[in-house]
Amino acid sequence: MLSHTLSQANAYQQCLTAELLMHLVPLLSGTIDVDTVVAILITCMTEAAQQTLPHKQKRSVQHTFPRHPWFDAECQAAKKVKNRVYYSNASDQEQLFLQEIAVQLFHAVTDRVKKAWLERRATELCEMASKDPSGF
User: Fold this and answer.
1) Hey, is 136 helix, strand or coil?
2) Exposure on the CB side of residue 92, measured as CA atoms within 13 A
3) Measuring CA to CA, how many Å separate 55 from each of 3, 14, 43, 47, 98?
4) 20 to 30 A from 65, CA-CA: which of 10, 13, 90, 135?
5) How far is CA 51 from CA 47, 84, 126, in A?
6) Residue 61 has what pLDDT?
7) How many C-beta atoms lie closer than 10 Å to residue 82's C-beta?
8) DSSP-assigned letter for residue 56
9) Which residues of the chain fall short of a pLDDT of 50?
10) What is the largest CA-CA distance in the chain?
């Protein structure tokens, strides 16, 4: 990790030097004002960073794997309610009580949904096994 960071820093330094050399003559001749110098420096640093630092790319939905395939819209709604309770402004005792209830309700919903999903999945697998036992 450190060697990767050092190589990125070296690459950034080399790229920034190359960018600055392209603009060095107008800077040294003094024919441009301070605002232009600042704009050129910002541009040089931005271009050097874009050329050397890795770009984070958003993963396609097709390439993401659900952590829990049973976690559906009902679970999402329960999670939103739980989070709203956690981040609400209430007194200490009241807040703790509401948080405890929200967590219990969240777990009740997720446990019920998970159990139903597992039962459906088990039924599907049993049907698949009865149709083609060699696949198992």
Assistant:
1) coil
2) 0
3) 18, 18, 18, 13, 42
4) 135
5) 6, 41, 54
6) 53
7) 20
8) P
9) 1-2
10) 85
108 in Cβ contact with 81 (< 8 Å): no
Give me the chain's average pLDDT, please. 77
In angstroms, the CA 116 to CA 70 distance is 9
Residue 124 in tokens: 């599907």
Q: Whats the size of the chain, residue-wise?
A: 136
> If you search the block for the tokens 């599907």, which residue do you land on?
124
pLDDT in tens, 88-113: 776 778 788 888 888 999 999 999 99
Q: Report the half-sphere exposure of 83 (CA within 13 A, side-chain side).
A: 6
HSE-up of residue 11 (Cα within 13 Å, Cβ side): 13
The answer to whether the pTM exceeds 0.70 is no
Tell me the residue type at 93. Answer: Q
